[in-house]
Amino acid sequence: MIKIDGRILGALTWLSCSLLSCWLAVAAVAQQSGDPYQLRFDDFQWTQPTELTPLAGTRSLGNRMPTAKAIAMFESRLQNDSQDVAALMMLGELYLVHAKEEDDLPAYDQSEQMLRRALELSPESSSAQLHLAQTLLAKHRFAEARKLASSVLERASDSPFALATMFDATLELGDYAAAKLALDKLLELERSAPVLAREARLAELMGDTQRAIGLLQQCVDTEPESAWYQWRLGGLQFNSGQTAAAIAAHQAALQLDPGNGPSQVDLAVCYFSDGQPELAKKLLSDAVSEHGEPPMMMLLGDLHMVSGEHQLAEEWYQRTEQAMREEAKIAGDAHAREVALFLADHDRDLPRALELAQRDLQIRQDIFAYDALAWIHYKLGDVAAASVAISKAVAHGTRSPQIVYHAALIAEASGRRDEAKDFWNILGETNPKFSILHSNTVKTGIAALSP
After folding, report:
1. Exposed, middle or buried by CB within 10 Å (0-12, 13-18, 19+), for 101?
2. Which of 133, 182, 219, 272 might form a disulfide with 166, Cβ 3.0–4.6 angstroms?
3. Average pLDDT of 1-25?
């Protein structure tokens, strides 16, 4: 094994970056309409960061080289010297960026391969370790990512990138106490938009949605050209019942990034909630034509279902299931939760949904993993198991409409009527119109509270 002194490696890395010319800050600075975090369609709850945005005053210079061209450049360089550590590191980062830009799942494997080769040659490279951790986060290998971040923090306890990575990994693993420790240290170092977004996420999980909205608004004010912050703000506003504000936020995100899939999906749900189902249907139909992503197909099916068009709904559900099967060939367990919830919501192959939810829980133990497991147990009629799982999902005080809705139904099925009433009240205070498919059930549940 070849070991390279860190100072030499730093010089080599700097030289490699200079060769990119206009491709400076490839992973640290997102496109103007893009985001500093990875966007995926596996759960719409939270997504991992590519890298912490640079400290104030650091910005990319000029227009960056297209990712594919940069990859070709360093691939050529690597052919001339297979042990070029700087080229391996740059390729690892470039493949990670390419995977996010093009939603190219195999590129995550290429990124991991390059970065692992770099670490074989330079085991102490913090940059290689942290970029590998980011790739592992994207592949839902959270425990491995946490281990890498911990290794870096042992040598550099004040590294913002390492602390951010530690926060993201521990958050997904459901270790909220450890996540808060990492966040507190991070906040001492800087209060940039990506850091405030993490603070907002933790506040949201703990049930303090209004504080989370305030923090996301600061992010939007600081980075007004970021579609990602607008999308996140719109999601929080919608969950708290501020539908008009949410619509404005998602529309702003789509002005910045017209092809932003998550904002298209969330805006469609907002339109339905606002009493504009036809507008929601048109938006989703256009989005499916452009992207063809499972969540869009599923919601189109839901719109047809609540309109009484059951045959059309079933056609869209079948297309959704087929698309999910194709994704699973590459994504594997990373999409287990998405598929499990789809199957449970639509009463399709519930034993398989349970298996997927259990696999997801092995990967990450956050509140949404327990919620998915509880929902599927409830659908299968195992109310006792559902109660155990949902108690863990609500233990930290979340006001997520989806989780609260599940908790209300499980409490009712368990005969805990006062507890169910509390959950229905929370849902009424937040957003009883959070779901297209379950809108009528929610309406009935809340109406039962009235004399």
Report:
1. middle
2. 182
3. 42
